[in-house]
Amino acid sequence: MEDTIFSKIIRREIPAEIIYEDDDVLAFLDISPNNPGHTLVIPKDLSTNIFDISQDSWRKVMDVVRMLAPKVREGAGADAINIQMNNGEIAGQLVYHTHVHIIPRIKGDGFKHWAGTPYAQGEMRAVADAIRATL
Ligand code: 5GP
Fold it and tell me: Which residue of 7, 91, 99, 105 has the smallest Cβ count within 10 Å?
């Protein structure tokens, strides 16, 4: 796997507003935030996204997400938080180094949830069966 811009941030080759760091995980402000305080949490070891990150690395990232989410909410003066992760091009992933977004939400900020579409008759069971069959 090739380095991305996030490896350069880990190595301090480009600047970032780092808000948390330990041996395995780094958290810094997104350069183009949905709201001020929008934070990215990344593992220091290389993986692309949810599909290839190790269980150990994922746990460490999620522990930091859990620790930081209320701190970001408080520090950014937000009302709520979205936790988001884009995995793959069609899901909107732009940087291919695993990262989880902590997105502060402010009442009236105008962001919308994606629209839900009801299942056709029988489709829900078929999809559930297909997923269960992979386990
Ligand atoms: P993705 O769409 O891959 O889930 O999100 C990548 C995020 O990385 C974007 O929200 C983008 O603004 C952020 N980003 C891209 N390049 C940089 C950078 O050089 N510095 C920082 N701090 N954030 C970046």
Answer: 91
For residue 42, pLDDT beyond 90: yes
Q: What is the pLDDT of residue 78?
A: 98
Q: How far, in Å, is the centroid of ligand 1 from the Cα of 101?
A: 9
- The residue among 99, 93, 97 whose CA lies nearest residue 3 is 97
Distance 74 CA to ligand 1 centre (A): 22
Q: CATH topology for 5-133?
A: HIT family, subunit A (3.30.428)
Domain range list for the chain: 5-133
**Which pTM was predicted?**
0.97
